[in-house]
Design a protein that fits this description.
The protein is an all-alpha fold and 301 residues long. It folds into two domains: 156 residues, Helix Hairpins (Orthogonal Bundle); 72 residues, no CATH class. Helices cover 82% and strands 0% of the residues. Helix 2 packs antiparallel against helix 3 and helix 6 crosses helix 7. The longest helix has 74 residues. It is rod-shaped and about 185 Å long.
């Protein structure tokens, strides 16, 4: 028995909690207003029914009064004709009509009082419904404003369901990005260390190393050739004029700027071989500079 009571209490608590979550105060206020309008309509219908009954009594009273007046005339006519018996019959009927009129008058007074009470009740109920309608709209507006403010606050603070879903989605996306970046870095490290094979390149690591060394040697060779082409050649006449007797190999180490000075100080003998050598050197210099901008021979001079 105690278990059933406890189970019933739990079910009721769950049901009340679910109803509280599902209940909207604005809908409840609208429902209460509709019920009050229904009650007001019923009271108005009652007033109309009472007024109808009162009107019917008044019509019946008018008819009975008309019949009583007619009987009164008939009694006078019978007396004028010396028909006392007919006059007595007419007056007897008129007395019955008077009794009915008294009863209708009492009912009419009751209906009038009831109608007045219903009219007063209707007026009070109308004022109450009007005040409730104003209060209802005010409460609905306040609830709507509070609800909007709550949603804005939850959205700003990030605790609303939509913002929480957005935050979780962004977090999952960031986790996936971090995971992919880490995987890409790990694959690059494994490829660099040789633990994994690069299927897009050569499958033989020895051949790959030889190809790399060959390319490096070719680059070094082209670099030396470019350096030789860019270095200006030393004229033979300037070297022969700047060299003095008695200086061995050590005198040739004079600064390159001193040789032109000595060439300008001492006149050079005009000789065809020196001129020919200078022209040959100039041709070689022009040829080398021309090859520098030509890539058809692979940079070969």
């Amino acid at each position: 028995m105690g278990v059933m009571k406890r189970l019933t209490a739990i079910v009721q608590a769950k049901a009340n909690k679910a109803l509280d979550r599902a209940e909207d105060p604005r809908d409840t206020l609208d429902l209460s207003y509709e019920k009050q309008l229904e009650q007001l309509q019923q009271v108005r219908r009652g007033v109309a029914d009472v007024a109808t009954a009162r009107k019917r009594l008044e019509l019946q009273a008018q008819q009975l009064q008309g019949a009583a007046s007619k009987l009164q005339d008939q009694a006078r006519q019978a007396i004028s004709q010396n028909r006392e018996d007919l006059a007595r019959e007419a007056l007897s009927r008129r007395a019955g009509i008077a009794t009915q009129l008294d009863q209708l008058k009492a009912q009419h007074e009751q209906l009038v009082q009831q109608e007045q009470r219903l009219v007063a009740t209707t007026q009070q109920l109308e004022a109450r419904v009007s005040a409730f309608r104003t209060q209802k709209e005010t409460l609905k507006a306040s609830y709507t404003a509070a609800q909007a403010q709550t949603k804005i606050g939850e959205a700003v603070s990030g605790i609303s369901e939509s913002m929480s879903d957005t935050g979780l989605a962004m977090q999952r996306a960031q986790d996936k990005i971090d995971q992919m970046q880490a995987r890409a870095g790990a694959v690059d490290e494994l490829l660099a260390s040789g633990a994994l094979t690069d299927l897009s390149g050569s499958s033989d690591p020895l051949q790959a190393e030889l190809d790399r060394t060959s390319r490096q040697g070719q680059v070094d060779l082209e670099l030396e050739q470019l350096k030789g082409q860019l270095t200006p050649p030393q004229p033979n006449a300037a070297l022969s004029a700047g060299q003095k007797p008695g200086t061995g190999s050590e005198s040739t180490g004079v600064n390159a700027e001193a040789a032109p000075d000595e060439m300008e100080a001492e006149p050079e003998p005009t000789s065809m071989p020196a001129t020919a050598n200078a022209e040959e050197d100039g041709d070689e210099h022009q040829t080398g500079s021309g090859d520098l901008f030509s890539l058809e021979d692979g940079g070969q001079p």
